[in-house]
User: Fold this.
Amino acid sequence: MKVLGIETSCDETGVAIYDSHQGLLSHGLHSQVDLHARYGGVIPELASRDHIQKILPLIDSVLTEAHLTLQDLDGIAYTAGPGLVGALLVGAMLGRSLAFALNKPAVAVHHMEGHLLAPMLETDPPTFPFVALLVSGGHTQLIQVKKIGEYVVLGDSVDDAVGEAFDKTAKLLGLAYPGGAQLEKLAAQGNPLRFRFPRPMLNRPGLDFSFSGLKTFAANTLRQTPLDATLHADIARAFQDAVVATLVAKCRRALQFTHWNTLVVAGGVSANTALREGLTKMLTQLGGRVYFPRSAFCTDNGAMIAYAGCQRLLAGEQVNLNVQVFPRWPLSDLKKIG
Ligand code: KG4
Ligand code: ZN
Assistant:
């Protein structure tokens, strides 16, 4: 089955074609980062307009790359939430209408299910069951995954998502939006011994996260310390070390709670090398394994939506002609497959 996947939930227009027999055939991405950078965050109206401009040429280019025409597709998958309503509607309206015109099924995909299944696109994919750590600009969640659609949220953010905390701290340090990847580069030059930031919520039981205090701690440290050549890098390093230590400790707890030894990490922050190294070391100590998507598929992309949509279409799921998108959509509402 060949499925066209469309992702427009935020500031990346992503399109891909996934084939259940041959794997990923092609993928294309247009990032709006430059468009929003001067405002210091995503402007929803600008995001929707840009998706409208970029999506058709991207679909043409992935079809050409895969040597296919629209008629060769067996179904269309689009992200229906969570995300920005206007942005979601662009992909959903186009995806649903294309499927109608082609007389093929369409399926609505949950953006976070897409992230969670992104490591399945790699040559050595994880097997079920596993614990998933979803770390993006909007989410920080630990999920117990028995199989596709069987999700139990074990832990969630009580305030800022981890990517959001990275972006806000990066902004304090004078880096452009979204600053996560740039903060990582700056942290690599920092001294790990100069500052020690708190490890939020580790001194109490449970698997929830809170990262907004770390951003405040960074702001206070910056204000109270006389400026010197390495101050920004040292703060970036202390912030990142605290985030990584907290995420590693919570993942260890979740694995001990479930008695499983497979961890899947996905979402934009899973591109962070320090986090990858910290989690890999912990899983080696536990005798388990951690799986990440390739870095291009850590952040938003169409490939993860094409993959997740293909699994749901193969299981017989499809949407009717009503186009619905959901700015909020709990993962636990999804249907089990099989
Ligand atoms: O998954 P994603 O592309 O979009 C959402 O669904 O939110 O995640 C974007 C987030 C941003 O906050 C970005 O700063 C962060 O992922 N990010 C990183 C890195 N690369 C992207 N954070 C830390 N280190 C990185 N290398
Ligand atoms: Zn995302």
Observations:
- The first helix runs from residue 33 to 37.
- The mean pLDDT is 97.
- Residues 10, 136-138, 163, 166-167, 178, 180-181, 184, 267-269, 271-272, 299-300 surround KG4 (ligand 1) (CB under 6 Å).
